[in-house]
Amino acid sequence: MTRFGFLVARTLRDETALQRLSVPQSELLAELAGKRIALIGNARALAQDQLGTEIDEADLVIRINRAPMPAATSHGTRTDWLALAVRLGGQDRQHLAPRRILWLSPKRKRLDWQIATSPGFYLHPQTDYRALKAQLGAPPTTGVMMIDLIARSDMARLELYGFDFFASLSLSGSRTAEQVPHDFSGESAWVNRLAMADRRISRH
């Protein structure tokens, strides 16, 4: 697909055309098989912990959106995959240096050509987003979409860091829970139920 073709597909919301830029979900899930995965949320409370070394020891480290990393001691240093639902400038992407970018937002108009043509790019299907939204009764966060996706794989472990569902607010900004369109208590309960049913998943 050319850049012009991408812009046309994005404008027309041609999901079939846009999906041609993405690796298949089956390929993504296969890469997770047998791995211990560290998924890093953006809760401010994580900055008070000393979990950076533990995070970096995971087989795969996945960060979310702007992926603030105030200190290596609390957040580690690696970013293998970056899951996005916001625009992120080229300089920020270069600093994080992920080897794969995943676009989880249903808002395709925010997706840019550089991300869509990056190595190993993955575009999360709209059907998956809508199914999870129906379960939660509210638009899901990027973090919960990633948890839902990873839980479908044959991964060995999923360790969640920096997920307190806005109890300590976010390192990415100053908004309160009331200012964002997510049901954080509902998401917390959903993750707790999932972790109870799937012992591979744990929250730190």
TrEMBL record:
Key words, A-Z: Glycoprotein, Glycosyltransferase, Membrane, Transferase, Transmembrane, Transmembrane helix
Keyword Protein biosynthesis recorded: no
InterPro entries: Glyco_trans_29, GT29-like_sf
A GO cellular-component term linked to this record: membrane
Membrane protein topology class: Single-pass membrane protein
Cell location: Endomembrane system; Membrane
Highest taxon in the source lineage: Bacteria
Record flagged with keyword Transcription regulation: no
Principal location: membrane
GO molecular function: sialyltransferase activity
Protein name as it appears in the record: Glycosyltransferase family 29 (Sialyltransferase)
